[in-house]
Amino acid sequence: MSRINVSKLTNENEEGGPSVSGISTFSSTAFLVPPKGTTAQRPEAVTPGMIRFNTDSGHLEYYNGVEWTEVLVANNSLDGGNRGIFSGAGTFAPTLNVLDYVTISTLGNAIDFGDLTGVSHGSSPGYVAGFSSPTRGVWAGGYYNNTMSYVTISSTGNSQDFGDLTAGGYVDGCSSSTRGLISGGGGGSGPRASNTIDYVTIASTGNAIDFGDLTVGGYAGACFASSTRAVRAGGARGNVIDYVTISSTGDAVDFGDMTNTATYFSGLSNSTRGIFGGGYNIKTIQYVTISSTGNAQSFGDLLTNNTYPSACSSPTRGLFGGGSYTPSNSNVIQYITILSTGNAIDFGDLNFSGGFSAACSNGHGGL
Asked: Whole-model pTM?
């Protein structure tokens, strides 16, 4: 066996490395280290197919000819891609406890998953929060409610009891691959504007534990996460955006402001960009870069004014499903490409109409 060690290769003009053409084979039981750097350090002179490791997101990314996008790892046991699960609509809707699912990388109508159990008050499980690990989806809180229930994402069936929150009400949720955060609350239960942040370990079951406090109490806001940071915005507290480090505990820190004062809207993300969409008679979509701080920027619009749609995502695509708007409820699922900007596009339909519910997926930005 021969071995060659090279510390530097350049072309004849000292402008860079040489091009290797033909079939090149690298055989090793070790590893290959690609170029790496932050999002801000992405090279400017790029061609399609270039690949690098983004140290901000912790993911490989490649240039597709238009933009840098993450390398998508799909779970082929889930219909060839990431799965999004939508809980049934709550207040102001006739179908309340159903669970629907879709394969996010496709287009088409949702399929029945099972029933959402335990997360309800009387006939209305509205205002629930949804979050997930790669294997388990959890729904929490709701109107006059502090319970949680969970499903196994790769299967179908009814949800099972998980435990209780420290406080209930109109909460919102997001997660890393191991820990779920539930924030805000009040509205229909307890104080009108709770500042509580709870957390759970998603792989287990049991009651939530106090994490810390939001900078301002509020309910009916929205949140999303990267693998390290959870971001929460808006709601009955105005246009404030907060963030916390998921693996720690403690009070939230100011992130910036939304472009508008919104309530009853939803959030989704990949590992680098977080997106808020909808709101009370609002169709606005806006975004932030999760690893930074600052005010939100305009992304585009949903298909119509949309109050409290459900939202979930894969590393490349975000879905908003259902919602309530004048003069009727919606069963429409619409999608966006997360790393671009622009208006939402029709995806298909849910098996129910209405909003005030929640969704989760096994491909969101916290995983």
From this structure: 0.79
Structure tokens at 293: 């701080």
Of 7-21, 28-42, 51-65, 130-144, minimum mean pLDDT range: 7-21
φ, ψ for residue 41, nearest 5 deg: -95, 10
Closest CA to 218 of 311, 150, 127: 127
Domain end point (choices 46, 71, 96): 71
Mean pLDDT value across residues 303-320: 92
Distance in angstroms (rounded) separating the CA atoms of residues 257 and 330 = 29
Is pLDDT at 323 greater than 90 in this prediction?
no
* Structural domain includes residue 367: no
d(CA 231, CA 193) in angstroms, rounded, equals: 18
Do 34 and 108 fall within a single domain? no
Return the beta strands (E) in 185-322 as ranges: 196-201, 209-213, 222-225, 229-233, 240-245, 253-257, 266-269, 273-277, 284-289, 297-301, 310-313, 317-321
- Give the Å distances, CA to CA, from 32 to 28, 36, 175, 327, 355: 9, 12, 30, 57, 47
Do both 98 and 146 map to the same domain?
A: yes
Q: Is residue 363 pLDDT above 90, yes or no? A: yes
Q: Model confidence at 225, in pLDDT bands (50, 70, 90)?
A: very high
- Beta-bridge partners for 232: 223, 242
User: Could you tell me the two tokens for 290?
Assistant: 């999760």
Using the predicted structure, report yes or no on whether residue 9 has a pLDDT greater than 90: no
**Total domains in the fold of the chain:** 2
For residue 70, the surrounding DSSP H or E stretch is strand 68-70
Sign of CA dihedral 215, 219, 222, 225: positive
Residue 202 backbone class (left: φ over 0; alpha: ψ -120 to 50; beta: rest): alpha
CATH number for the domain harbouring residue 223: 2.120.10.80
Q: Which domain holds residue 229?
A: 83-361
